[in-house]
């Protein structure tokens, strides 16, 4: 990966752009003669905070959590499908992204490296600033390490062999998957050592601000990175450290994790902040968030039920059926079903102030279809999602995930009895029976399958399912692949290597020597 390092600094900093290979690093370091900010920025603690805020800004654009990243994380799973008329979206879940059309996946790739570049600006310049409050300086550096780790986590996880920029330079060569994960782990370690538990009791410019990275978030992502690289002992110990912080707990109402009424709650380890009150009227798609933007999160309209949004993403029938497999202790269907999807429920179901059966009654296909409910503004306050102004925060990592990942690590390190303990609170919340009674003395292999089931239902449509499928090696297991095909016809077009996205063609063109991922 190659960048032209234009030292142009505003609130949101400069963005790296690709160059050809026939120039030297010295040629690439240029000053914008029309901007005096280069001489005055990176002088104060306020500058430093603005710099790290710019790194957060890359979480809000179309390439990341405004729209593209949830799509890329969700669509390959067997919990959802897409019949979008937009070809670039339609092919994601069919493992057929086009190397010559980088729409969606290429935007994500670009924005991850925009965020990494901005974090590197902070990590390069902030150490040279004199702070009256050294704790504030540490928090800013910790957030920069966290954000660089998070963007790189996505890049390695989705694109496999990618550049690993850890300093400001002109050329960033492609690295191996292992090298990428090693840097992700180091960044989250550094972040955990510098970040506070919360910003409630700190003093300084960031005091009391919600949405900033914390020690718990850094540790949770560190544990997740260990888990994704199959380092189960380190993952186990790191998740236990998160649990032992004693600051997280499951909220009583599962649906509170997907609405705008109980954001930044006790279950949220890290979430991206969106607000319906932000912006103006412009429907801009790329670049840094601007004051004139009229669009916030586009997840709601993209995933929205037919006639209320674009319906580009829908739950699968396999997901619906799996929710029926086990009743609660009171004999009811798992309540997470109704929090996850809209369907023609016996007795009625409301969406956007309308009764499902009545609204879709004139169209048998819609009446018998399934639509997404998570992250929808569907409880009656708004008529539909067509204003592009969803203010629902994106919960990237919940405490329920920490508990189930910890249970998985216990099982993989031969403490299967211990795994029961940490699955139990997740099931208790929704009234499911105690596994130690209904399925006692499971083997390690049986528990592994059970955890797969638990994660499928708890995190449906949250961008976790395909990550699990890939890291568990199910695509390389002939029996599991046949099973996935029986649940989701989109797996019929899977071919080896397509579990990762292609390296965008622009990256291939501008960085000679870059090797395309296998299968493309």
TrEMBL record:
Keyword Phosphoprotein set for record: no
InterPro entries named among the record's database cross-references: SusD-like_N, SusD_RagB_dom, TPR-like_helical_dom_sf
Domain called RagB/SusD: residue spans: 267-520
UniProt-listed Pfam families: SusD-like_3 (PF14322), SusD_RagB (PF07980)
Location within or outside the cell: Cell outer membrane
Domain SusD-like N-terminal: 82-227
Keywords: Cell outer membrane, Membrane, Signal
Domain of life: Bacteria
Signal peptide: 1-23
Family of the protein in this entry: Belongs to the SusD family.
Protein name, UniProt field: RagB/SusD family nutrient uptake outer membrane protein
Biological source species: Mariniflexile jejuense
